[in-house]
What we know:
Layout: H1 10-29, H2 35-41, H3 44-58, H4 62-85, H5 96-110, H6 115-130, H7 136-150, H8 154-166, H9 178-183, H10 194-219
Helix pairs in contact: 1-2, 1-3, 1-10, 3-5, 3-7, 4-5, 4-10, 5-6, 5-7, 6-7, 7-8
Amino acid sequence: MKEKTWGLSSSSLKLIAVISMLIDHMGFVLFPQYPLMRAIGRLAFPIYCFLITEGAAHTSNWKRYALRLFLFALISEIPFDLAMGGRWIDGSYQNVFWTLLLGLLAIELYEKKTYLAYAGIVVLVLAGNLLGTDYGSEGVLLIWLLHVVRKDDIRWAAVVAAVWCLCFGGVQQWGMISALFLLLYNGKRGWSGLAIKYAFYAFYPIHLLVLYAAALLRIG
């Protein structure tokens, strides 16, 4: 994919996704009376899925990338369960890092170009629902589809994201707006450094714990 001299970098897309996700989770945990906050939050997931495909394309070590997603999936599970359900452990619903990890594994299998690998992709997609990950099988499928089309043209990735959101009802369709941000992607990394990279990862479990604590204070 060719870089543009203008537009949004990968870091800018991450920031948009983070802000959208924060508004979404604030709406779920603290302000359920404002459904618009949940609608705004629908922008985040398609952007995160696209960024997984970009990370897979540019990483020098996909196994290390997968391990990082796995570790933050583990770290985030208790904060996620507390914020979303008020319980320390909820085996029926898992945080979004698991979905992103399954999507990354599906990408790597796809690149092997074997029938066995393709069968593995089906298993990974089904695992999204079986494990109860956030966005489930549909989320894993979106990551894989974005990877398939991103090499041809960024516009195809935007179309896939928009159609995926359109297939759902209610507030999920607001996610189509994420396609506009993908169209503005310039192919550049943006801000760099380990501190910034891990800050984006760490924000997920930290903000969930903060929201859970805020909810407890309101109840008290």
